[in-house]
Amino acid sequence: MALSPQKCLVEDRQVPLDATSDPPALFDGTTRLYISYTCPFAQRVWITRNLKGLQEKIKLVPINLPNRPAWYKEKVYPANKVPALEHNGKIIGESLDLIKYVDSNFDGPSLYPEDSAKREFGEDLLKYVDATFIKTVFDSFKGDPVKETASVFDHVENALQKFDDGPFFLGELSLVDIAYIPFIERFQVFLDEVFKYEIIIGRPTLAAWIEKMNKMVEHTQTKTDSEYVINYFKKFM
Ligand SMILES: N[C@@H](CCC(=O)N[C@@H](CS)C(=O)NCC(=O)O)C(=O)O
C-alpha cells in the first residue's frame, strides 16, 4: 500500500555512517545527500529537500563527523565536509549553492520567487547570512552578545518587515528562510541559556517568523537537540 504524502513527511533517523561503515554504492545513479544530523549548513539542504517533497528522490546519508569514514574524503568529497550532494555522477558542495541547485534541478514547489525585487533582496540576504550574520554572532560569544549582535538581529528583524504578503523574508517561504533558520534557532537557544539574552524581545517580526518556521514539519524534523547545541557552541566562547 502506498504511503500517504503526510506519512512520508516524517522519516526515521538512520544511524550515521562512521569509520567502520562501508560506503554506499557510489555513483550508481542514486541521488544522495550527505549530512550530519547536527550540522546547520547541511540542515539547509535537508529542509530544502523536504519542502520540495524529494524524500524519495534524494536519499539522506548521515555521516558521523567526529568519526567519519576515510572513504568520504577519498571517494566522495575531498573537502571532507557536509553537506555534499551526489547527483548525475558528480559531487556538489557548499550549502548556499546546494539549496539553489536542489531548488532549480528537481521537481517540487519553487522556493525562490521570480519577482525581481524579491530576488534582488533575497540575494542580498543570502550574501549577508554567512559573511556577516553568522560571523558576527559567533564572534560575539567571546565578548558581549547583547551589544555586539544588536545590529545583525535588527537587520534580520527589519528584513522580515520588507514584504507584507506573508511572514517570511520574501513574503512567501523561500530559500532565504531556509538559509537563516538553522542558525537563528541555535543562536536563540544558546544566547538565552548562556547569556540570558532573548533575541526575540523587542523583535516581534522575528518572534512570529520563528513560530511560523516551527510549525513546518519539513523543518522541525531536522532540528538538533538544544543540549547538544549549547555544549557545542560553548567551544566558541
Ligand atoms: N561553507 C560550508 C560549510 C560546511 C561546514 O563547515 N560543515 C561542517 C559541519 S557543520 C563540516 O563538515 N565540518 C567538518 C570539518 O571541517 O572537518 C557550507 O556552507 O556548506
Automatic annotation (TrEMBL):
GO terms for biological process: response to toxic substance. Gene3D superfamilies: 1.20.1050.10, Glutaredoxin. Its EC number is 2.5.1.18. It catalyses: RX + glutathione = an S-substituted glutathione + a halide anion + H(+). Keywords: Detoxification. Residues 29-110 form the GST N-terminal domain. It holds the Pfam family GST_N_3. It is an enzyme of class 2 (transferase). It comes from the Eukaryota. Belongs to the GST superfamily. Lambda family. This is glutathione transferase. It comes from Cardamine amara subsp. amara.
